[in-house]
Specification:
By secondary structure, this protein is α/β, with parallel strands linked by helices. The chain has helices spanning 13-22, 49-58, 62-70, 80-85, 180-193; strands spanning 3-7, 26-30, 41-44, 75-78, 86-89, 93-94, 100-105, 115-120, 130-135, 139-143, 148-152, 158-163, 166-169. The protein contains 5 helices and 13 strands. A 7-stranded mixed sheet has the order 2-1-3-4-13-12-11. Bound molecules: glutamine.
Length: 199
């Protein structure tokens, strides 16, 4: 069974754990550096990225996480989790973990549309479009050449970006019953990178 770590310091890690369990993989809550061992993949949930940044430092997880990501551990970041994976946070500087060559702008949809839902096209998943929930979402404002846009809003704006084994989503697939993106992560990213270890 694939063991999928879920950073459980803050945010909606329980919803991700439920999604992973429903797909037949084993969710492992991660709060200590030791818990990063023997994972096939890792999820960074939504929540508050500034709080997560502080807790990552307090729990001595920053360095071990950076090392695991540099070693190629597949990772999925949603919303605040995507902010942690960006190369840079506009107006703030480098993000705590990095790994995906994108620049994000936090809370960039403004107060009026603080949170919204929209159907997004995800060609890798085919039809129908995915109903996506955005909550104080960041905007991806720059995308490097090695990054593959995976999902777009109707206006063409990119809301999911993949670079190798790393996937950043500005929305929350864990809050709906459509688990196709979690499944994509397990099959196309974790499964591919760990083909022999996925028994
Ligand atoms: N606004 C949050 C941040 O900047 C992210 C919101 C979320 O994860 N739903 O960290």
């Amino acid at each position: 069974m694939q063991r999928i770590g879920i950073l459980a310091l803050q945010g909606d890690f329980r919803e991700h754990a439920r999604a992973i369990a429903r797909l037949g993989a084993e969710p492992v809550e991660v709060r200590l550096p030791d818990q990063l061992a023997d994972l096939a993949g890792l999820i960074l949930p939504g929540g508050e990225s500034t709080t997560m940044r502080r807790l990552l430092a307090d729990y001595a997880l920053l360095e071990p996480l950076r090392e695991r990501l540099a070693a190629g551990l597949p990772v999925l970041g949603t919303c605040a989790g995507a902010i942690l994976l960006a190369r840079e946070i506009a107006g703030e500087g480098p993000s705590p973990l990095g790994g995906i060559d994108i620049v994000v702008s936090r809370n960039a949809y403004g107060r009026q549309v603080d949170s919204f839902e929209a159907d997004v096209e995800v060609p890798a998943l085919g039809k129908p479009p995915l109903h996506a929930v955005f909550i104080r979402a960041p905007r991806i404002v720059e995308i490097g050449p090695g990054v593959e846009p995976l999902a777009r809003l109707g206006n063409g704006e990119v809301v999911a970006a993949r670079q190798g084994a790393r996937l950043a989503l500005t929305f929350h697939p864990e809050l709906t019953d459509d688990l196709r993106l979690h499944q994509y992560f397990l099959r196309q990213i974790v499964g591919r990178d760990n083909a022999s270890g996925a028994a």
